[in-house]
Amino acid sequence: MLWVNLVMDTLASLALATEPPTEDLLNRKPYGRTKSIISPLMLRNIFGQSLYQLAVMFTILYAGQYFLGVESTVQKIQHDPHVAKQLSTQFTLVFNAFVLMTLFNEINSRKLHGERNVFKGIFRNPFFYGIWIFCFAAQIVIVTFGGRVFSCAQLDIYQWGWSLLFGIGSLI
């Protein structure tokens, strides 16, 4: 949980706050005092991303055993609550997909005003891509070698592929 908070709050804030201003941003009129900070477009993006991530999480939890090659830990816990203390591939997959969706959504979050190309200027900010690459690499290490310390089971290449696909899906 600490890692998720670190990725979502501290490191994401640092990466996004160091984004240099663009010419378009500097030419934009300031917002009025009574104008909402969250624009209708931002609200739509927040709502859409939330729905997407919830759909992925529930799909992994309740249908993952059918297409991801994982045992249903949810069903096992219903019969024996002590199963929750064991390492779960299904819960690791949920964790991994969530972190990857969050990381890829950070790329989306660089653009606030409906710009289509979220990758435009991505290499102008070494803080952003440095933090992003660090978080991505740390996630690989945590899931691959974290074991009991991070309550992570090993994922195979197929499950990593699905996690990555779910993460990339955040860009759409």
From TrEMBL:
Residues annotated as transmembrane: 51-68, 88-107, 127-147
Domain of life where this protein originates: Eukaryota
GO cellular component terms, A-Z: endomembrane system; plasma membrane
Cleaved signal peptide residues: 1-17
GO molecular function: metal ion binding; P-type calcium transporter activity
InterPro entries the UniProt entry points to: ATPase_P-typ_cation-transptr_C, ATPase_P-typ_TM_dom_sf
Subcellular location: Endomembrane system
Membrane topology: Multi-pass membrane protein
Annotated Pfam families: Cation_ATPase_C (PF00689)
Keywords: Magnesium, Membrane, Metal-binding, Signal, Transmembrane, Transmembrane helix
Domain Cation-transporting P-type ATPase C-terminal: 1-172
SUPFAM superfamilies: Calcium ATPase, transmembrane domain M (SSF81665)
One GO term (biological process): regulation of cytosolic calcium ion concentration
PANTHER family the record matches: CALCIUM-TRANSPORTING ATPASE, CATION TRANSPORTING ATPASE
UniProt-recorded name of the protein: Cation-transporting P-type ATPase C-terminal domain-containing protein
Protein's organism: Rotaria socialis
